[in-house]
UniProtKB/TrEMBL annotation:
It is a multi-pass membrane protein. Its main location: membrane. It comes from the Eukaryota. The chain crosses the membrane at residues 32-50, 76-100, 112-132, 152-170, 191-213, 244-266, 287-310, 322-342. GO terms for molecular function: G protein-coupled receptor activity; olfactory receptor activity. The lineage of its organism: Eukaryota, Metazoa, Chordata, Craniata, Vertebrata. The keyword Membrane applies. InterPro entries: GPCR_Rhodpsn, GPCR_Rhodpsn_7TM, Olfact_rcpt. Keywords: G-protein coupled receptor, Membrane, Olfaction, Receptor, Sensory transduction, Transducer, Transmembrane, Transmembrane helix. Putative odorant or sperm cell receptor. It comes from Ailuropoda melanoleuca. It is found in: Membrane. This is Olfactory receptor 1G1.
Amino acid sequence: MFTNPVTTATESESQWPFQGIERNRSKPLQSVLFGAYLYLSKILLQFLYFKEIRNHTSISDFLLLGFSHHPEQQPLLFGLFLAMHLVTMLGNLLIILAIVSDQHLHTPMYFFLANLSLIDTCFSCTTVPKVLVNTLTQHHTITYTGCLVQMYFFMALALLDDFLLAVMAYDRYVAICLPLHYTTIMCPQRCLLLVTTSWLCAHLLAFSLTLLMSQFSFCASHSIPHFFCDLLPLLKLACSDTQIFQVMMFVEAALSGVVPLTCVLVSYAHIMHTILRVPSAAGKHRVFSTCGSHLTVVTLFYGTVFLVYFQPSSSYSADTGMVASVVYTMVTPMLNPFIYSLRNRDIKGALRKLVGWGRCSTP
């Protein structure tokens, strides 16, 4: 029978305050996390060094064609993309503020949700501001270094989204299928370790592909039929041998796409099996409402990502790639706050408290 993990623990165990991380963290975990952040900093410094070295290429700038073939639609696209970006920023920042300000939301599920909102905010800032500037000024160039930097952060944040969705599915599996052990398994140290590992793995994978891309020669054309420096459009411009790169890309896609998706599917298979054993309709509805939001986000994200990246570069379609990219770079980050807040009483209550507190504090 389904049991709410929060009600099975003591009050001190059920609350998961962010400040409790420092209080409860063990020394071995401190060493691991500190070493991970040092290693990540070293990788980023190496990246900042190598991006200045333009090996085997005479191209200093790329041209992001994007939607420039439709000049009559530029004002409409600018207004649409600006509105989506502002809604994305406002919605995700409100989610983060609501979770941080409400002690009742200092639990693993909302800790992961706050991280997802932070990633979506950064993800939107990686591509959309450049699109807005290009659309407004009709100046579509981007430097070689800027293109590699944009591609690096785009891949790192997309991979982070991927890993974090799998972590959130595992969290729901433990909460629903192993409720009596939830506070033990999803302790603050383990939650922090899962998030830190996701950040580290995402940056390592993105860095390796960006480093390989920097070695290619772009001697044919410098026009990218996309609105940002995506992997496949840039790969099609390379006149070097890209076979090794494509093999590595598909291996990383399997590791970072198939493995997390398998984790999601297995977790929800166990969840569905547990739901069928819940006798009351109210209990089933509570479980479905908890997991439905996450499943919606997973479907939107994986559907568009698999459509774009799980194909050979020779069969890549620029138009299909741009449409799918708009979905997972602009639409999905914008919808996530609505998906998670509209069906969640705790988030809606925290948002009402946040807005009410802001009004009360206004002189």
